[in-house]
Amino acid sequence: MESREEEKSFTERIYEQVEEYAKTTVELYRLKAIKVFSDVFASVATGFIIWVIISFFLVFLSIGIGFWIGDMLGAWYLGFFIVAGIYALIGLIIYALRIKCLKQRINNFIIRQIFKD
Questions:
Q1: What DSSP string describes 19-59?
Q2: 83-92 long-range contacts, CB within 8 A, separation 24+
Q3: Which terminus of the chain, N or C, has fewer Cβ atoms within 10 Å?
Q4: For the whole prediction, is pTM greater than 0.85?
Q5: Count H helices, E strands: the chain?
Q6: Which residues constitute the domain of residue 17?
Q7: Percentage helix, strand, coil for the chain under 3-state DSSP, each rounded to 5
Q8: Domains identified in the chain, total number
Q9: Percent of residues, the chain, with pLDDT higher than 90
Q10: According to the model, what pLDDT value does residue 115 have?
């Protein structure tokens, strides 16, 4: 009888420890996932803010260059057409190199952020 109670008590203790271990492991992975998500989100948010600032800079710079070239050519619309043509050329180059350069860099960035620790 006593052996049966000891065995039951031992089994209950093992079961409780396994249950606690499982809960702790789940909580650990949940916290690790939250950390990875917050790191990736912080990097993306920072990159977005920098992108917005650079975009404003480029817009105003483009307007200024458009007016400057237009003033030199005697017609403002010519300056803006030239600036637009330069952007179209840059866009075509980026489009042609998108798979080699941009996609690989974005993939590497995300993988580095996920496996940082």
A1: HHHHHHHHHHHHHHHHHHHHHHHHHHHHHHHHHHHHHHHHH
A2: 87/62
A3: N
A4: no
A5: 3, 0
A6: 2-114
A7: 95, 0, 5
A8: 1
A9: 50
A10: 76
